[in-house]
Amino acid sequence: MATPYEGYDVLEKWSSPSFDDQTRDALAQRLGEIPPRRFFSREELSTLEAIVERLAPPLPGLEASLLSLWIDDRLHRGSDEGFRSEGAPPAHEAWQRGLAAIEGEARRLFGASFATLDAPSKEAALHAVQAGETDEGLWDGLGAASFFSDTLLKTIAGLAYAHPLAWNDIGFGGPASPRGYVRLGFDARDPWEAKKRR
Questions:
Q1: Distance between CA 128 and CA 184 in Å, rounded?
Q2: At CB < 8 A and 24+ separation, what contacts does 158-161 make?
Q3: pLDDT tens sequence across 20-45
Q4: pLDDT tens digits for 148-169?
Q5: Taking Cα atoms as reference points, which of 153, 192, 197 lies closest to residue 176?
Q6: Cα–Cα distance measured from residue 146 to residue 68, given in angstroms and rounded to the nearest whole number
Q7: Cβ distance 142 to 164 under 8 Å?
Q8: What is the pTM of this model?
């Protein structure tokens, strides 16, 4: 899939006023460090990688295994958003229960592990979870549709678009700090922002 910002590389601004030392440090860590698996079991991580492959934007170099390990690292460190819906379990428990339930749904619907399903079957299983058309016994009160929207999709999309490869794809100019954005109107851009190729 071609991007309207082909040839744009946000990292060309590395030494410009767009990035400060704190931003460069955060990006260097994001680009250079692949955290080890420390929270999920191998089976859970395999399920998560297969889910990420279906939900993350298809960007070469932004692999499902990397995004999955970022989620694993967050959960290992106990770093979550700091809030959850009333009655929802803690993040580490929600992720483990949710992945186990998706695995159960794959076996219920297709008789096989989610990671081994073909692409259309993975899509069908995830659509069932998104719609809440699931076996409630597998979810143990977790709420399939809310797990899909509020946990899976939100986290995967958020982490994918935290990566400069995704920034390039959407023409994102980089963090607002320290330079800041001035032209905020519709279809307005600052001179240092990416321009669409026609």
A1: 39
A2: 159/67, 159/70, 159/71, 160/56, 160/57, 160/59, 160/62, 160/67, 161/57
A3: 999 899 999 989 889 999 999 999 99
A4: 999 999 999 999 999 988 999 8
A5: 192
A6: 20
A7: no
A8: 0.90
